[in-house]
Amino acid sequence: MENKYTGRTFIVEIIAILIGLVFLVPFYYVISNSLKTFADILTNTSALPSVLQWQNYVQAFERLDYLRVFTNSLIITVGSNVVLIIFCSMAAYMLVRTKKKISNIIFMTFVAAMVIPFQSIMIPLIKTAGNLGLLNSMWGLVIMYLGFGSGMTIFLYHGFIKGIPVELEEAAIIDGCSPFGVFWRIVFPLLKPITVTVMILNSLWIWNDYLLPSLVLQDPALRTIPLATFFFFGQYTKQWELALAGLVLSIIPLVIFFFSMQKHIIKGITSGSIK
């Protein structure tokens, strides 16, 4: 019986390794082709570079104006995460602790909003944003991300907060803590696993988003990394070697952030979905 179990485990591990290698294939193509000349890319995209073209990264760094677009992306991503965490954690807390029918209706409305395709509201959104003066503004974009990201964020916080004992809050209230203090001093510190998960998932989405920033940020000085990378593709020329180098530069900060925080992902998602 033990040998049979060991054999099955070995097969599962081999399958998992093969699946992992399949997912690594796109990274191989991106990194290897970012170190080739344009002619080498056209000749054979699968081959390793004969000579490492590190100047591709230097040119991409300069052409992207990397420090500026990196700063823009960082401001938008961090700002969006901050407002999503603050507003959605408080909203989810009230929806869980307020035992009324209207709370369930509001919660289900947020969940239902997650399935609405962005393309269906794209035009009215931009018209409304123009009327409110939110176009060509990074903080206007942050407000839009708050709207689009609230559904999933509240859903995750809602499930996690259900597992927090109410007795902790009651004890704090007896000790003289205000409702606002109960949330920020007692409840919010317990939300660390799901907060990290929310931060990672939203960062992956916002950092890599192209469509919404392309509609909102028309000023070249406000371009994010995905918007700047797009300009390597002209009407008549496509600078693949620079575009791929720029892509690698854009994902390095996100990969570092992801691997530094990944230990919280499984714990946060399972706690938020099961409790």
From TrEMBL:
Transmembrane segments: 12-31, 74-96, 105-126, 138-161, 182-207, 242-261
Keyword Mitochondrion part of the UniProt annotation: no
A Gene Ontology BP annotation from the UniProt entry: transmembrane transport
Annotated organism of origin: Mesobacillus foraminis
InterPro entries per the UniProt record, alphabetical: MetI-like (IPR000515), MetI-like_sf (IPR035906)
Cell compartment(s), UniProt: Cell membrane
Protein name as it appears in the record: Raffinose/stachyose/melibiose transport system permease protein
Membrane topology: Multi-pass membrane protein
GO-annotated cellular components: plasma membrane
